[in-house]
């Protein structure tokens, strides 16, 4: 277990916990020599013996470390703790998750939503050009920060289940459905083995819908199977915002 005050690999001093997810815990840390603050994501120790989970974790480091796009969170280092648990070092971001901002204000103005969506689209273009599909794009994986006095600078996070189209992917070949149901394209549910970049574009559409309405087109916290059935078979409900341009 890593705790406050620990120094990871003699370089990164843990300051505090920032958050916890299904795959790992994210800590605020400081480089021992240059005093730069970073975010360190450490895989849950109980998952460190699962080869498929480690591969997903490494995918995240590969994607964030190689794309070098201003709207994709940057990965600067990776390694292993004394307990042989992998970690990834990311740039430390200050700001808010898109999800929190959307529901805080009850839906965004059209211009603001479009400005954010354009940046997400630019990040996706960079990933897709490198033959990387995110596969879990959602508003919880979009971070809003202020950069050089520019408001709403987007950083796309968490390429943990990304698919590298030029490499074999055992889980995708077996047709395993991966992602967050509310943001999944129908084809991602019915034909998971052939998921490509279009699933990310669909997810961006869901995010844009959510930004404009402060709700998701399909939502059901209790029964994921029923939710996925509705996504495949039902049309999304209208936005019900008359000021939104028809083309949007």
Low-confidence stretches: 167-173
Mean pLDDT: 87
Count of extended strands: 11
What is the multimeric organization of the chains shown? single chain
Beta percentage is 15-25%
Distance between the termini: 48 Å
Side-by-side strand order of the widest sheet: 1-2-3-4-6-5
Shape: globular
As a whole number of angstroms, the C-alpha radius of gyration is 19 Å
Q: Indicate the percent of residues in helices.
A: 25-40%
Order of helices and strands: EEEEHEEEHHEEEEHHHH
SSE class:
alpha+beta
Brief overview:
The protein has 248 residues and is of the alpha+beta class. Helix content is 32%, strand content 23%.
Descriptive key words:
7 helices; alpha+beta; six-stranded antiparallel β-sheet; 248 residues; three-stranded antiparallel β-sheet
Report on this model:
With 248 residues, the chain is α+β, with helices and mostly antiparallel strands. The protein contains 7 helices and 11 strands. Strands 1-2-3-4-6-5 form a 6-stranded antiparallel β-sheet, covered by helices on one side. Strands 7-9-10 form a 3-stranded antiparallel β-sheet. Mean pLDDT is 87; it is low at 167-173.
Outline the fold blueprint:
Layout: E1 7-8, E2 12-20, E3 24-31, E4 37-43, H1 51-66, E5 75-80, E6 86-91, E7 95-97, H2 98-105, H3 110-129, E8 132-133, E9 142-147, E10 150-156, E11 163-164, H4 170-173, H5 186-190, H6 198-213, H7 224-233
Antiparallel strand pairs: 1-2, 2-3, 3-4, 4-6, 5-6, 7-9, 8-11, 9-10
